[in-house]
Amino acid sequence: MALDLLKLYVNEVVLGTGFGIIIGPLVANIFAPRSWGSLNNTITLEVMRIVLVIGLFAAGVELPRAYMKRHAKSLLIMVVPTMAFGWVVVAAIIHVLFPKLDYISALCIAACLTPTDPVTCAAITRGKFAIKHVPEDIRYILLAEAAANDGLAYPFLAISIYLTIETSVQTAIGKWFLVGWLYQVILGTVLGAIIGFLFSKLMKISHSQHFIDRESYIAQYLALSIFTMGVASTIGADDLLAAFAAGCAISWDGHFHEQINDDAFFSVIDYVLNCCCFIYIGAWLPFYAYDSPEYDITPWKLVLLVIAIMVLRRIPFLLAIYKFVPEITCWQEALFSGHFGPMGVSAVFVSALALTRLPTPENPPADQAQYLAATIQPIVSFVVLGSIIIHGLSIPFFNVGLVAHSRTPSFSKTSTDQTHVAGLVC
Questions:
Q1: Where are the beta strands (DSSP E) in 101-236?
Q2: How far apart are CA 385 and CA 14, in angstroms?
Q3: CA atoms of 43 and 392, how far apart (whole Å)
Q4: According to Swiss-Prot or TrEMBL, what is its membrane topology (predicted)?
Q5: Contact criterion met (CB below 8 Å) for 14 and 392
Q6: How confident is the model over 344-366, as pLDDT tens digits?
Q7: Using CA atoms, how far apart are residues 408 and 133, in angstroms rounded to an integer?
């Protein structure tokens, strides 16, 4: 039992962030991304973009063959309504706690916190604890949801930005529909799917003719994700959805996944990128801004915000609609799925993207748009820090609880069609 208790399953998200804080300005001041001046936000945006694109492409490849087609109904319920509910609720919480932000500005900040982060979510979809204790259906649906809703954060951010900077509501809604949905989301998804499909056919033909060997698939794993991101970004489409669609398309028939299934090289690359990314985030966190009374930001308000978001952002809605999602069989699994909606790389990425579309704030801010630009990253980054701590340590907490109560940890369906969720029986 003592040995089992030591297996805390602490992942690279928590460790990387902790190390980043230690070497960052708060402690050692060895690595300080925010000291890079005007380039800080651009570098942060692109670092997060690369990590997300590779992670989303990997998520698409890891899903079973034709998964998106067979589980389209469940994903539609899990992604769009859940995101919309969380977006509106989180915005309301932000508006109440920070009344200087109007509701439209609160919607913009909430859009950064709406997507589930696929990198942080890896603790329950890929780790050893997940394989032993979480049902396969839950793992895949959470992985697919986290990947899909990352790209769909664009429309939620776009409508908030347009309503903030446009003088006409009609103009804002028109741009949101044409640019946010038709051009970015629809075009990005179709573009990624076409690239993935064509590349899949090319790889199969090359493999059958012995033009390439198995090792080439690993090299193309990285190359295709970066290529898809480059094409989509160049034309202004949603590069995150494009990368996920490309990953799904290239492994649609299962051939690509079979070629790389037993190779650990890409997993190592993925872990290295994730570690580096969260070290960057740990050093990037603006601790100095968490007590800024001039912007109505205080530590106790930020703590209340984190608690309210963790409780209200996903859990109530998933508990209400889980019966329409076949992969979730009982309320315990719905509670588990609702809790594991972490915020991390995607939230930092969307907040950095928002700053590229907002004016540079003066001191004091001249209008609501400048006030939003001055407060968006302090609020988002503190919630990200809270999510990393809470979600990153949830798995160790579950494991210690299971060992302490001397229960057999099992999330898998038994012969009596019961499901054990962290020691709770459905």
A1: none
A2: 10
A3: 25
A4: Multi-pass membrane protein
A5: yes
A6: 999 999 999 999 999 999 888 98
A7: 10
Q: How far apart are CA 341 and CA 131, in angstroms?
A: 18
Tokens of residue 90, six digits: 């989180």
What residue has token string 């059958």? Answer: 208
* Residue 268 structure tokens: 């190592």
Residue 210 has pLDDT above 50, yes or no: yes
d(CA 395, CA 167): 47
Instruction: Kindly list the domain boundaries of the chain, sorted by start residue.
Output: 2-425
> Which of 46-50, 85-89, 191-195, 206-210 shows the lowest per-residue confidence on average (mean pLDDT)?
206-210
Cβ(240)–Cβ(45) below 8 Å? no
Question: What distance in Å separates the CA atoms of residue 363 and residue 20, rounded to the nearest whole number?
Answer: 29
Confidence band of 151 (pLDDT split at 50, 70, 90): confident
CA dist., res. 400 & res. 415, Å (int): 26
Band (9; pLDDT cuts 50, 70, 90): low
> Under CATH, to which class is 2-425 assigned?
mainly alpha
Q: What is the DSSP string of 224-247?
A: HHHHHHHHHHHHT--HHHHHHHHH
